[in-house]
Amino acid sequence: MLRQPTKQNIAQAATLLQNSELVAFPTETVYGLGANALSEDAVAKIYALKGRPSYNPLIVHVPSWNMAMRYAVLDARARTVAHALWPGPLTLVLPLRADSGLAANALAGLDTVAIRVPAHPVAHELLVAAGVPVAAPSANLSGRLSPTNATHVARQFEDAAPFMLAGGAAKVGIESTILDLTGHLPKILRAGAIGVDELEPLIGAVEFADGTEAIKAPGQLKRHYATNTPLRLNAVDVKAGEAFLGFGNMNFIGAENIGFARDMDTKLWRNLSPEGDLHMAAMNLYAYLDELDQSGATAIAVQSIPPVGLGIAINDRLKRAAVPKGEE
Ligand code: TXA
Ligand code: MG
What we know:
Elements: E1 2-3, H1 7-18, E2 23-25, E3 32-36, H2 40-50, E4 59-61, H3 65-71, H4 76-85, E5 90-95, E6 112-116, H5 121-130, E7 134-135, H6 150-156, E8 163-165, E9 177-180, E10 187-190, H7 196-203, E11 207-208, E12 231-232, E13 237-238, E14 243-246, E15 254-255, E16 259-260, E17 269-271, H8 278-293, E18 300-302, H9 310-321
Parallel strand pairs: 1-8, 2-8, 4-6, 5-9, 10-11, 12-18, 13-15, 14-17, 14-18
Antiparallel strand pairs: 2-3, 3-7, 4-7, 5-6, 9-10, 15-16
Helix pairs in contact: 1-5, 8-9
The structure holds threonylcarbamoyladenylate and magnesium ion.
């Protein structure tokens, strides 16, 4: 059952977290499925409920960067970035403090920790009230679309649903940028709303993980963020039986047997942003994919999205979602 984020419900959720129970909660990126990151038992429940492989570590959520310093070592670079961009849609991978006390299964045995201070007021209140670090992946079954609104969360776990706090539609809509600060050069492991244009003025050159080295963010390379319905990317037309996800001007997109995509049944197409606004597109991405996934179409044709700014992150998610089933 979904609860409104009243003081009382947030207090109850905080108590559940302290008692090693799971709580789903809103963040500005996507909804999270949280557990006390100090408790192996609590964290084990996340992996079990999501069907998540145990080698894929979790992000630890804290309400302030003061609290982050209890678990991670923040060098000058990390402090600069944290000061400028936390709270916000940015996760930092940092050296783990020897005395962190974090559950080994939250870290998948690594000696680094991914840590984030979310900006959503409900997430913030919950983290303050809980007083413990909260390990939280996105609140979806492993490999599936991340939920960006409360009803999408409510549909995920059916009978096994944990205590769930509602908090409106996520404003960012795609998962946080993951920035690895454990090496010589800062490296983006996962693209998100915070891009190089914001990072480089703060800490100098930032590189993108290119996928050729050992996987630093496991779970980043395979089929992920996926619909049940296959995706066909960079579509310039719509074939019979397909649904269509547009971006910007879709007036010229033809639809087999119908004429134009815009004349298709309204349940068969969406436009991420008719104005071509990438922030709007990111915010709508998972909700629209989810709706088209339920339309009964044989495939979802997706119009191309420029690979600049937030478009980099959107294309990253679409590419992973388009990896055919069985090739994960
Ligand atoms: O926006 C978000 O980050 C959301 C909300 C709920 O905060 N969370 C989220 O978590 O996207 P999840 O579990 O779906 O993705 C976590 C990613 C995984 O790709 C994992 O491999 C990576 O973070 N990760 C975790 N710890 C890591 C570490 N020590 N080094 C490298 N990557 C790490
Ligand atoms: Mg996820």
